[in-house]
Fold these 2 entries.
Entry 1:
Amino acid sequence: MKSFSNKKFADILKDHDKIVDCEFIDCIFVKCKFADCTFINCIFSECSFLDCVFTNIQSKETNMLLSTFINCNIIGVCWANFQSGSFSSPIYKFDKCYLKYNDFEKLSFKKFDFLQSSLIDCFFMNCDLSESNFKSCNLHNTEFSDCDLRKSDLRKARGYNINLLSNRIKGAKFSYPDVINLLEPFDIKIEK
């Protein structure tokens, strides 16, 4: 396995490539693009990705731990495939990121701050999102299923789809008018 520690990678373009048997520890990736790539038997530990683009990346036997994404575009990623055990988290931070068609399953985002990110058409399933901050995030068509959203802050967030019957939301904070979306599964009519 090739190992890289405290290394900076800039302007790398990988398109339909296979990245095999690599270990990255505390590395920084700047303005890199990974399109339709497959990571096989790789490790990313506490890496930072700045201004990077990820499109439809796949993972086989690859683990990511506590990675930071700042100002990245991330499309079509299933994050559960990068998880290395039930107590680890592949993601440490999203800051001003654009995420579309991402799946998050059985991940812990407890007290996580999504920091002005847009999560479009994403899906959270069986995730711990308690005390997390989605304040002012664009969550257009993002669904939450069997998630713990207790004490989460969704004030000024817009576009979310949260079913009150399948999620725990006690103590969560919402703001008008988007809070009305919580009543959609009940097929009731609300007049102004």
Note: Residues 85 and 120 are 27 Å apart (CA to CA).
Entry 2:
Amino acid sequence: MVHEKLKIQLPGSFWQADLYTYFLDNSIELHPNRTRPVIIICPGGGYHMTSDREAEGIAIQFLAAGFHAAVLRYSVEPARYPEALGQLAKTILFLRENAEKYHIDKDKIIVQGSSAGGHLAASMGVFWNKPFLAERLGTDSEMLRPNGLILSYPVISSGKMAHVGSFENLLGEDYRDEEKRRSMSLELCVTKDTPKTFLWHTAPDDTVPVENSLLFFQALHKLGIPTEMHIYPVGGHGLGLANEETSSDDGYGVQEECQSWIELACDWIRHL
């Protein structure tokens, strides 16, 4: 396995992100020319931190399923939009440019995100072809295209169902600007170029209301973008894998009914 810690920094930026790779090696005994999907994991944390509970544990499960994985520890507040988005875009560019080196299927670069990390992942899904990203990275927009999104209880809407703290941390002083705040409400930003999406949420989530996933699903469905969504009738927010591996010290996060999401997501990737 290729396990490295790489620095991701945008041109002219003070901020740095850390990218942790979990790449399976090829073998002359096991399909030596095999390429694999890669899943870029964006942990949640309200754009205030990046949670360990939504990082390596998830990566290892994707690895066990035969996929490459990478955890992006993107910049959070006081870094502001679009710093983290640019770091994610540069990560996609790096993986696509180095697809041969790491045995990556460059047409199956998938972004997974939990909570606020889900907002970052979904932002990449709706903004990947905006000129400002390609111009800053000196590339073509097609090099930044994610081929799929996996969104775990994502922050989506800046409207009535918003997780306000995420948007305050993302935008800083600009949060007071209604137009800028609205521009981050991703259900309003979906286009026909948004990639196929896998969504899951818990109905009782009292931190990021389930309506966030529902609004994004409705926007995708309206444009005919293939979307798989699972709403679990039990469970709270920030479950990670919903098992002991990603539970907190007090035992929070174990929800047996929700543990199926990772297997369902892996099946979705296989059919992408």
Note: The mean pLDDT is 97.
